[in-house]
Design goal:
With 485 residues, the chain is an all-alpha fold. It is built from 24 helices and two strands. It has one domain.
C-alpha cells in the first residue's frame, strides 16, 4: 500500500488526541473508564487519524481493510476470552474452582502466597506455553485464594501475571516465543538461550520482591476466617481429588500442542459434565423449578457458560468468590479490544506508525541506543496498536537491517522484542492482553500493573544489557574469540 510522505507532527496528532482523551477519562471516571469512555476515546482518535489520512488521498476502503486485518489478527484472542468466561462458569458449578480454593487455603499462607503463586504460574505457563491459559485457569482460583487470605488484589494479580508471562516467554510452545525469532531471523533454541541472560535476573528480582512483600504488606481483615470458608465450601460442594482431573486435562492438552480454543472448549464441556455428576444439588439449586433433572442440567450448564452465575452460601464474602460472568461477562473486554484494534488498524494502514518508527531510527548511533529504540518502539506499538503481535512483528521488521548494520546477530533483536513487546502488553489498559487479563482476574489494569514486577523489570534489564554491552552476540562474520561484542 502506498502511503503519503507524512510529517512527524501529522502522524503524532491522533496519538496526542488519544492521550488527552484517556487522561480525561481516568480523571472523570477513574477505574470505570474501561466501561465505555476509553472505547469512545479510541474510536475518536481513530476518526481523527482517518480524517487526516483521507485528506491526504488515502481512501476509506484502504483504511477499512486495515481495520479488518487488525481485528482479524485478534479473533483467536477473542474466542479464547469467550471460552475462558464459559470455562470459569462450568468450573464453578462443577466444584473445580471451589476445590482449588479449599485445598489452596490448606497449603498457602499470606507470607508465602505471592512467592509461591509466581512459581506455580511460571511452571504451568512453561509447560503449556500460554500465559492466557494459565491466568484463565489456575489464575482464577489463585486470585480467589489470595483474596480469602486478605492480600491486596493488585499484589495477587501482579504475582500471577509475572509468573505466567515468564513461562510464556521462555516456553518453546509459546506463540510469541516462536514468532520473535522467526521475525528476527534466528532459530528458536538460540533465541531461548539468549533470553536466559536477561529473563533470569528479571524473574529472580521479581521473586525477591514478592518474598519480601509477603513479610511486609498489610493483610486486610476479612469478614470470614479461613476455617469458616473451608467449612462452607465443604458443606456446599462435594469436594475431592477427582475434580482436579478437569484442569489437569486442559493443561495436558495445551502442553501437547492442542490449540487453545479446542482445549478450552473441551475443558468447559468437561466442567459441565462434572457438575452434573458430582454437584447435582448445585445444578438443581441454580436451575430452579424446571421439571426433570435432565432439563435442570441443561439449563444450569448453559447458563453457567453464557451468563452470570452466583452460588448463594449465606456469606457475602464467600458469595463474591463463587460468582462468574460467563461469556457475557467478557463482552465489555471484547468491546474495548475491538475499539483499540480499530484505532491501531487505521494508524497502521495510513502509514502513521511507520513514520513514527522512522523518526526513532534517526536517533540510533550505537548498539545500546538501537536496543533502546527497539524497546521504546515495542512499548509504543503496545500502546498505539493495542496488540502484542504487532508490537513484535512491525518493530522486528523495521529494525532488522539496523541490527545488521551494527554487526549484531539476530538473537539480540529477538530477545529485545520479547523483553519489551511480549511482557509489556499486559500493562496497557486498552491492549488486548491488558484488557483480557483485567477481565479474567477481575482486577483493573490500573490496579495491578505496578505490581507486575517481572513485566516491569524485563525491559529495564534489556536496556541495562544493551548499554553495558553485556551478552550482545555479533554476527558470524564479525565474531571474535569469545563470540560476543
Amino acid at each position: 500500500m502506498k502511503h503519503p510522505v507524512w510529517s512527524f507532527v501529522l502522524s503524532l496528532i491522533p496519538i496526542v488526541v488519544l492521550i488527552v482523551l484517556l487522561w480525561f477519562d481516568v480523571l472523570l471516571f477513574g477505574e470505570d473508564s474501561s466501561y465505555g469512555s476509553n472505547q469512545i476515546a479510541l474510536l475518536t482518535a481513530g476518526a481523527v487519524a482517518a480524517v487526516i489520512a483521507m485528506a491526504n488521498k488515502i481512501s476509506w476502503n484502504q483504511l477499512y481493510e486495515g481495520i479488518e486485518e487488525s481485528i482479524a489478527s485478534a479473533m483467536g484472542a477473542i474466542l479464547i476470552l469467550l471460552l475462558i468466561g464459559a470455562l470459569a462458569g462450568t468450573w464453578l458449578i462443577s466444584g473445580v474452582i471451589p476445590a482449588m480454593i479449599y485445598y489452596g487455603l490448606e497449603v498457602l499462607n499470606p507470607t508465602s502466597f505471592l512467592f509461591a503463586t509466581t512459581i506455580v504460574c511460571a511452571i504451568i505457563s512453561v509447560a503449556t506455553g500460554s500465559s492466557w491459559g494459565t491466568i484463565g485457569t489456575v489464575g482464577v482460583a489463585l486470585i480467589a485464594i489470595g483474596k480469602a487470605l486478605g492480600l491486596p488484589e493488585g499484589w495477587i494479580a501482579g504475582a500471577i501475571i509475572s509468573g505466567a508471562y515468564f513461562g510464556d516467554k521462555m516456553s518453546p510452545l509459546s506463540d510469541t516465543t516462536n514468532l520473535a525469532p522467526a521475525i528476527a531471523g534466528t532459530d528458536l533454541i538460540t533465541h531461548i538461550r539468549h533470553m536466559v541472560w536477561t529473563t533470569g535476573p528479571s524473574i529472580i528480582i521479581a521473586l525477591i520482591v514478592f518474598l519480601i512483600a509477603g513479610y511486609t504488606i498489610e493483610v486486610n481483615e476479612t469478614n470470614v476466617s479461613v476455617e469458616t470458608m473451608q467449612h462452607v465450601l465443604a458443606e456446599k460442594f462435594n469436594l475431592g481429588w477427582w475434580l482436579f482431573l478437569v484442569p489437569v486435562g486442559v493443561i495436558v492438552l495445551i502442553a501437547r500442542k492442542v490449540p487453545a480454543v479446542p482445549a478450552l472448549f473441551l475443558g468447559t464441556i468437561l466442567g459441565g459434565v462434572f457438575a452434573i455428576i458430582f454437584q447435582p444439588q448445585i445444578v438443581s439449586e441454580l436451575a430452579g423449578d424446571v421439571g426433570s433433572f435432565a432439563e435442570a442440567s441443561y439449563k444450569t450448564v448453559v447458563n453457567a457458560m453464557a451468563l452470570d452465575t452466583s452460588i448463594e452460601t449465606g456469606n457475602a464474602t464467600i458469595n463474591d468468590l463463587l460468582s462468574t460472568g460467563g461469556m457475557f461477562g467478557m463482552m465489555n473486554t471484547i468491546w474495548l479490544i475491538l475499539c483499540a484494534l480499530t484505532f491501531g488498524g487505521i494508524m497502521q494502514a495510513a502509514g502513521m506508525l511507520e513514520r513514527l518508527t522512522r523518526a526513532v531510527l534517526k536517533l540510533v548511533s550505537s548498539a545500546g541506543s538501537l536496543i533502546a529504540a527497539t524497546t521504546g518502539t515495542c512499548i509504543a506499538f503496545n500502546i498505539l496498536a493495542s496488540d502484542q503481535y504487532l508490537a513484535i512483528v512491525v518493530p522486528g521488521k523495521m529494525f532488522a537491517q539496523a541490527y545488521r548494520d551494527q554487526g549484531l546477530a539476530p538473537e539480540n533483536l529477538s530477545r529485545t522484542l520479547e523483553d519489551s513487546g511480549t511482557v509489556t502488553s499486559v500493562l496497557i489498559p486498552w491492549n488486548t492482553c491488558g484488557v483480557a487479563q483485567a477481565g479474567v482476574l477481575g482486577v483493573a489494569t490500573g490496579t495491578y500493573w505496578i505490581y507486575c514486577v517481572f513485566n516491569l523489570v524485563s525491559p529495564l534489564m534489556t536496556l541495562l544489557f544493551g548499554f553495558m554491552g553485556w551478552k550482545l552476540t555479533k554476527r558470524p562474520a564479525e565474531i571474535g574469540s569469545d563470540g560476543e561484542v
